[in-house]
């Protein structure tokens, strides 16, 4: 299940992409348009800045802006930045301990294929394609 944080991060990225004009967009403007509290939005934007998906500027004329063109972001990278790795079962996480049943696990190929489908789905869609509805 995709969390509220990831869904809001997508909304923030869409908002920044739709309102980019080579100027920083104030937090209060994003908050008002997206109907997300400024406090919760600060948490999300902190993650996005730390992940270098957006940059922020404090003070007068400050706010947030994308670091790349909308076509250069994948939906998968935004979700994984906020959620962590997309995996349907714990044994498929990148830092998972080796499972003692791995060699005999009949269901492992199922989980691998499912994870690949989900990963490929989210990583093949750009932020621009999502905005344009062309995915």
What would you say this structure looks like, in words?
This protein has 135 residues and is mainly α. The protein has one domain: Arc Repressor Mutant, subunit A (Orthogonal Bundle). It is 50% helix and 6% strand. The chain has 6 helices and 2 strands. The chain has helices at 4-18, 27-34, 38-50, 75-83, 108-123, 127-132, and strands spanning 54-57, 63-66. The chain has a two-stranded antiparallel ribbon. The radius of gyration is 17 Å and the shape is elongated. The mean pLDDT is 92.
Q: If strands are numbered along the chain, what order do they take across the biggest sheet?
A: 1-2
The assigned CATH architecture is Orthogonal Bundle
Largest sheet: 2 strands, antiparallel
Q: Which value, in Å, is the CA radius of gyration?
A: 17 Å
Question: Structural class given helices, strands, pairing?
Answer: mainly alpha
């Amino acid at each position: 299940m995709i969390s509220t944080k990831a869904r809001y991060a997508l909304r923030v990225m869409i908002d920044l992409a739709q309102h980019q004009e080579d100027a920083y967009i104030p937090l209060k403007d994003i908050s008002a348009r997206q109907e997300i509290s400024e406090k919760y939005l600060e948490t999300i934007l902190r993650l996005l800045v730390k992940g270098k998906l957006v940059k922020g500027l404090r003070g007068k004329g400050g706010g947030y802006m994308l670091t790349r063109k909308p076509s250069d972001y994948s939906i998968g990278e935004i979700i994984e930045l906020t959620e962590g790795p997309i995996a349907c079962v714990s044994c498929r996480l990148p830092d998972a301990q080796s499972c003692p049943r791995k060699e005999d696990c009949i269901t492992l190929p199922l989980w691998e294929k499912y994870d690949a489908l989900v990963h490929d789905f989210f990583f093949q869609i750009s932020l621009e394609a999502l905005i344009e509805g062309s995915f």
